[in-house]
Write a structure and sequence with these properties.
Keywords: Repeat. This is Nephrocystin 3-like N-terminal domain-containing protein. It comes from Glutinoglossum americanum. It holds the Pfam family NPHP3_N. The chain is built from 23 helices and 23 strands. The strands form six sheets. It has a seven-stranded mixed β-sheet, sandwiched between helices. A five-stranded antiparallel β-sheet has the order 3-4-2-7-6, with helices on one face. It has a five-stranded parallel β-sheet with strand order 20-21-22-19-23. By secondary structure, the protein is α/β, with parallel strands linked by helices. α14 runs antiparallel to α19.
Length: 622
């Protein structure tokens, strides 16, 4: 049996339900004993059972070995990403792992009492789903299991595990981690009752970045896209952030560790989370807007952490370098008013700030205080959110009726693909600023295929939404795509402009003209005609201080069925009331429509500096 100075916990999945806990524990213990080699002594171990949060036909166990681990599990110590399958009894296959990937429920809730909330803890980059929350004291308590099971027995408390190891060859970026999290949470909140259960998050470091990304995405989801993800924001009542680097963190020492391999796949992720990362700054702006009515507690570290340093004696990297603040205070707090964000300093470094040795720990008492407040207040508030959603939302109903095209989702998907800093040259240019501040201006970006025009459009739309979110400014975009020509009909494209104006700018009530048109068609279950959409669009535009319309790949807008001609006709009719930006390939018919507009030539967008050549100035659409 291998020896160890500290106990190691394994997760066992696939255990049967319907038997007594004692019987399951006995069978598991017997299975482990049966797998020992001849020269091994009986291990010192404790077994704790819990429900499987994603499969009600099985349960799980947390098995802790105190004096050493059996040889048959040793490969999981050397390679924590591995699993070990074995058979328990005559027909039950079980699996041991140390990685804890996906969701793991830590304890059974109190029998006979309804579950009041779900608590989900997301670990740090290069952390461990279970071990990162475990104290360093003699008893090595894991507070999410050992303390919350006593103090919050009616909450379903789960940890979320993912491949966070920095030296892994994973190519995942923030978007990939977000997608993985959303896919996994569908498995544990898959019924209406579960989806509408209050949700509290506890996020350490990078885990908070994943969470913020997912909540931003969830707000953009409709129930028809996925009911679990669409409900995520409404169900979220409160979040405890521990050292989350909302504005990035120092990664120089990590880069040094990976420097031997300039093409190491983790370098791309490090660029995304570097201090003052453009990607994080943009995400932060979106996130702050959607959590203003949520309960936020931000814990920040006041002790420093040693840098990673190469140890030539052990031939390994360890934290033996100079002291640094891993996540500084400015990055760890959202800078919301004190009534919206509780800010708490912790006398610990970045790793130790989530390790509580006892229930008497001041940091634990603070965390528990707010979790208990959440548990007390959340049920009514979260229930009211879903009740209000159950009443048909007229704005949403009319928007879906106007057009089946979802350019808002397309905008989000394209924006995800950009590299940090891409397109900044355009946003900083005098030409763009003139277009932004002027009236009835047209900006035409002409470029060859593959020059990056679509990403450029997504950056401009995102910039407009960030800049004018509190003002009576209309913003709409169209992503023309030849592959979608069947759906991108004239009525759908024009209707989509109107749809976005009422979706994005919710400060204005639905106009009487649009409401009347909808009611007239709703009675006979018909959709608006092209002329009706055009008429209402012209009226709607006049309700705004300014309207920006951004169109990508106009050359891909269908020409043979008249869609492009009709779209250009509508834009021409609106030229005195909108600011228009269009991208396209060089095309004689399109050039004829922009007589007097000297194009901005987009030769190619280098994702580092965005090289361009610029020709001409801005003019009105003729």
């Amino acid at each position: 049996m291998g020896t160890s100075n500290k106990s190691i916990v394994f997760r066992v999945t696939g255990l049967p339900v319907g038997e007594t806990d004692d019987d399951v524990k006995s069978a598991l213990s017997k299975t482990i004993t049966g797998l020992l080699s001849k020269d091994e002594m009986q291990p010192e171990m404790t077994i704790a059972l819990a429900p499987s949060c994603d499969d009600d036909k099985t349960s799980i166990a947390l098995v802790e070995f105190g004096s050493g681990i059996p040889h048959f599990l040793s490969p999981l110590v050397g390679d924590p990403l591995k699993d070990r399958q074995c058979q328990m009894g005559s027909d039950t296959d079980i699996t041991f792992d140390r990685h804890f990937f996906g969701f793991t429920q830590l304890y059974a809730t109190e029998p006979g009492h309804p579950v009041t909330a779900d608590i989900i803890a997301i670990t740090e980059l290069d952390g461990h789903a279970y071990g990162s929350w475990r104290g360093k004291g003699i008893l090595r308590r894991m507070w999410l299991r050992d303390f919350l099971s006593k103090d919050m027995p009616h909450c379903r408390t789960m940890i979320y595990g993912y491949n966070s190891k920095l030296k892994s060859l994973e190519i995942s970026k923030i978007m990939d981690y977000g997608r993985e999290f959303m896919e996994e949470i569908k498995k544990v909140r898959y019924t209406k009752e579960l989806r509408e259960r209050p949700l509290f998050f506890i996020a350490h470091g990078f885990g908070g970045i994943i969470l913020a990304h997912c909540l931003v995405k969830a707000v953009q989801m409709n129930k028809d896209d996925d009911p679990t993800i669409a409900a995520l924001h409404k169900a979220t009542y409160g979040i405890l952030f521990f050292g989350t680097p909302h504005k990035g963190l120092m990664v120089d020492d990590i880069k040094s560790m990976l420097a031997a391999d300039a093409d190491h796949p983790r370098n791309a992720l490090l660029e995304q989370i570097n201090l003052k990362s453009d990607l994080l700054i943009d995400q932060l702006a979106d996130f702050k807007n959607l959590i203003r009515d949520r309960k936020i507690v931000s814990f920040y570290e006041t002790e420093q952490t040693r840098r990673l340093k190469w140890d030539p004696k052990d031939q390994s990297w360890s934290r033996g370098g100079d002291y640094i603040t891993a996540v500084d205070t400015d990055s760890a707090i959202l800078q919301l008013p004190d009534l919206m964000e509780i800010k708490i300093p912790l006398h610990a470094n970045h790793s130790q700030m989530v390790k509580f040795d006892s229930r008497g720990s001041q940091a634990y008492k603070s965390a528990l205080q707010y979790l208990r407040q959440y548990e007390r207040d959340a049920p009514k508030i979260v229930s009211d959110r879903f009740l209000s959603q159950a009443v048909p939302n007229l704005r949403h109903t009319i928007a879906d009726w106007l057009s089946p095209l979802n350019f808002i989702q397309k905008q989000s998907d394209v924006l995800d693909r950009r590299h940090p800093g891409t397109g900044q040259w355009l946003l900083d240019s005098d030409m763009f600023r003139d277009w932004l501040s002027g009236a009835e201006q047209t900006l035409w970006c002409r470029g060859i295929p593959g020059a990056g025009k679509t990403v450029l459009v997504s950056i401009v739309v995102d910039h407009l939404r960030q800049k004018f979110q509190e003002e009576k400014i209309g913003i709409a975009c169209i992503y023309c795509d030849y592959k979608d020509r069947i759906e991108q009909t004239p009525v759908n494209v024009i209707g989509s402009l109107l749809k976005q104006l009422i979706q994005v700018q919710k400060q204005l009530p639905i106009s009487e003209e649009l409401n009347t048109l909808y009611k007239r068609h709703e009675r006979v279950k018909t959709r608006p005609t092209l002329d009706e959409c055009s008429k209402v669009l012209r009226s709607e535009v006049r309700r705004y201080t300014k309207v920006f319309v951004v169109i990508d790949a106009l050359d891909e807008c269908p020409e043979d069925d008249g869609t492009r001609a009709r779209l250009l006709k509508e834009l021409g009719a609106l030229k005195d009331t909108i600011n228009l930006m269009v991208t396209s390939r060089p095309h004689i018919n399109i050039e004829n429509e922009f007589v007097g507009v000297k194009p901005l030539e987009v030769l190619a967008i280098n994702e580092d500096d965005g090289d361009i050549s610029v020709g001409g100035s801005l003019a009105h659409l003729d």
